Amino acid sequence: NFDFASRVERVEPSATLAISNLANELEAEGIDVVDLSVGEPDFDTPENIKTAAKDSLDAGDTSYTSSNGVAELRAAIAEKLQADGIDCTADNIVVTPGGKQALYEIFHTLIDSGDEVALLDPAWVSYEAQAKMAGADLSRVDLSPYDFQLEPALDDLAATVSDDTELLVVNSPSNPTGAVYSDEALEGVRDLAVEHDITVISDEMYDEITYGVEQTSLGSLDGMADRTITVNGFSKAYAMTGWRLGYFCAPEEFVSQAGKIQSHSVSCAVNFVQHAGIEALRNTDEAVGEMRDAFRDRRDMLVNLFADHGVDVPVGDGAFYMMLPVDDDDQAWCEGAIEDAHVATVPGSAFGTPGYARISYAASQERLQEGVERLVANDYL
Ligand code: PLP
Question: What sequence ranges are listed for the domain Aminotransferase class I/classII large (predicted)?
């Protein structure tokens, strides 16, 4: 009989839970489920990164590191971000156990109870939960009328944010839409952020996974260096979800405040995992390129398959997700699709955008094809 804190009571259980429970039940019955709900690459971590971790363990890198991260890794991250046009040094970097923890620390560093956080819907599920746990009130801009592009929604964004907005979250390439926002869109965000003195989180978790377009870092735009917190990690680009390694880059005064949360909670990211991260950043371009090519081929195949069945899916140029238009009751559609067709997807309402199902194409072409065939055979397409 606990008197729970409002911070947990304000957060809903994940809308994806019902789907993964159903998938687990079916699999326990021996039924083959085509799982297009996963948010992680289906590839193994590249061999050179694993070797670096083993070597690091053998070298005895098993103690705590400095709380903000191993100096050489922070330097390698700063180098990567400088190449993206962000003016930073190792002192601007905090290495965290996953990008999710980076976001957690950022929200808790900036948000007081009642502060306003603006999201672009559909938005990755944990932004809302984390913002609410920090006490935020949310304002939201719906990108679904614009095929999930940001540029045509700038007027809506301008009408939503104000001097009361503390923080805006931008995620390009986007989970769940795959959209990569244009430079014009990002410049529009910059103008609003400067006008209303808004801090912006730029979640660039999928920046290595783009197809024929370059992802621009918000923090590289004039006027944004002092107000952008750039978040990234190793999970998606290097197929390292289980290693738990991420980071953020922020002005030094922000780093010293957020560093208190890091040092009093997780202390630091895992020592030998950080050493593997150095190898990932410095020597993995080829493997990253191969994964990118595979994702691109799958995206193209899937879009064509949907088109063959008369379904027009807004195609993004990055990440490994797309939003399939489905019934208004997307939760029922997703539950039905898994029960009848044994295909698992995630309801768009989990991302603030009902009427869609998020498809992850981090699965082989055979499985994607099988998934579409099953949806067609069961009248879900
Ligand atoms: N940001 C986005 C948009 C994501 O999709 C994810 C993972 O699904 C994360 C952040 C967090 O990733 P991790 O904590 O594995 O670094």
Answer: 32-375
Question: Is there a contact between 255 and 91 (Cβ–Cβ < 8 Å)?
Answer: yes
Q: For residues 17 and 14, what is the distance between their CA atoms, to the nearest angstrom?
A: 5
**Stated length of the chain:** 381
Distance in Å, CA 308 to ligand 1 centroid: 32
Q: Which residues constitute the domain of residue 332?
A: 6-44+286-377
Q: In a mutational test of the pocket of ligand 1, which residue from 100, 170, 247 has the highest number of ligand atoms less than 8 Å from its CB?
A: 100
- Looking at the structure of the chain, the number of domains it has is 2
pLDDT tens per residue, the chain (381 residues)?
899 999 999 998 777 777 888 888 999 999 999 999 988 999 999 999 999 999 999 999 999 999 999 999 999 999 999 999 999 999 999 999 999 999 999 999 999 999 999 999 999 999 999 999 999 999 999 999 999 999 999 999 999 999 999 999 999 999 999 999 999 999 999 999 999 999 999 999 999 999 999 999 999 999 999 999 999 999 999 999 999 999 999 999 999 999 999 999 999 999 999 999 999 999 999 999 999 999 999 999 999 999 999 999 999 999 999 999 998 999 999 999 999 999 999 999 999 999 999 999 999 999 999 999 999 999 999
Q: Is 99 in the pocket of ligand 1 (CB under 6 A)?
A: yes
In a domain, 52, yes or no: no
Q: Give the closest residue (by CA) to ligand 1 atom 8.
A: 39
The CB of 358 under 6 Å from ligand 1? The reply is: no
Q: What is the pTM of this model?
A: 0.97
In a domain, 214, yes or no: yes
171 — phi, psi (to 5°)? -135, 100
Residue 53 lies in a domain: no
CB 126 less than 6 A from any atom of ligand 1: no
What letter does residue 133 receive in the DSSP assignment? H
Looking from the CA of residue 234, the nearest atom of ligand 1 is: 16
Radius of gyration of the chain from its Cα atoms, rounded to whole angstroms: 21
